[in-house]
């Protein structure tokens, strides 16, 4: 059976007086009268059946019994204060609904999601693959990660990352059907993650617009075209964010060292009314912190060096003996990459 505890107010008066060394100082801290503190201490001593202070002198001195009680009382009040502070902190638990660009969701967010959920185990996440800004209007959506120009004036928006585009292929495919020159692209199936403008931009930067294109398949988003490349069915355009870990693991290789900057970028957006919600804030903070992790340069697996627009498209491409610094072509025309 739990022993009966002394009343709380006398314990507060005792702790403050022992810490301050005087009844008057304790009274000022507790915002009560000198007599009230003296009365509370006397009541506590009567309750415990022992004296807690030695009276006499300008500064009160604890009796052995008072010295024994003080640490326990001080620790108890400290723990109560700490628990109260935690109770007042904003909660980071509950439901969080995130819409995200399909390719980014599949190849970047999901592989890292456990680092967020492990840090915030009370958060239950709903993920929706979508690049539709209209999701921002929905009260069911908390955060959207979008690919676009960032022009959504009615919403809180912050640039998350720009990206560059470059061809990617399965190493298995290239072992069977090598790319010895740009002309060899005509022997491969080309996968588009948009309406074709991305590949046109890249080929223009490579001075290879006159290449006869073979089979071409069009996908609704870059996730599908990248998956087709992963299965060894053709060549797709990857980007520096979503294709990074696939290249690092050797599932995709970069046959050419030429990249072109994407016209748009990845943005994080939400309704202003939910921006400061604790659960939204910790997720957005995590998104930006996770982006700071280093990503492999795509050219670490590039097999051929393009010399730029002055290179004739028919010329064989020179093998790269070692990784080279990425060279970026001029900014392309606007394109869609979901």
Structure description:
This protein has 338 residues and is of the alpha/beta class. Helix content is 36%, strand content 18%. The chain has ten helices and 15 strands. The chain has helices spanning 8-20, 23-30, 34-48, 64-88, 102-119, 171-176, 197-205, 222-230, 244-248, 278-291; strands spanning 53-54, 61-62, 94-100, 123-129, 143-148, 156-161, 164-168, 190-192, 216-218, 236-239, 258-261, 265-270, 304-305, 318-319, 327-328. The strands form five sheets. The chain has a five-stranded mixed sheet with strand order 4-3-5-12-6. β3, α5 (102-119) and β4 form a beta-alpha-beta unit. It is rod-shaped. The two termini are 65 Å apart. 33% of the residues are buried.
List the helices and strands and how they pair.
Elements: H1 8-20, H2 23-30, H3 34-48, E1 53-54, E2 61-62, H4 64-88, E3 94-100, H5 102-119, E4 123-129, E5 143-148, E6 156-161, E7 164-168, H6 171-176, E8 190-192, H7 197-205, E9 216-218, H8 222-230, E10 236-239, H9 244-248, E11 258-261, E12 265-270, H10 278-291, E13 304-305, E14 318-319, E15 327-328
Parallel strand pairs: 3-4, 3-5, 8-9, 11-15
Antiparallel strand pairs: 1-2, 5-12, 6-12, 7-10, 7-11, 13-14
Helix pairs in contact: 1-2, 1-3, 1-4, 2-3, 5-8
Unreliable runs: 307-336
Overall shape: it is rod-shaped
Largest sheet: 5 strands, mixed
Give the quaternary arrangement of the chains.
single chain
Radius of gyration: 33 Å
Number of helices: 10
- In which order are the strands of the major sheet placed? 4-3-5-12-6
What share of the residues does DSSP label as strand, in percent?
15-25%
* Count of DSSP strands: 15
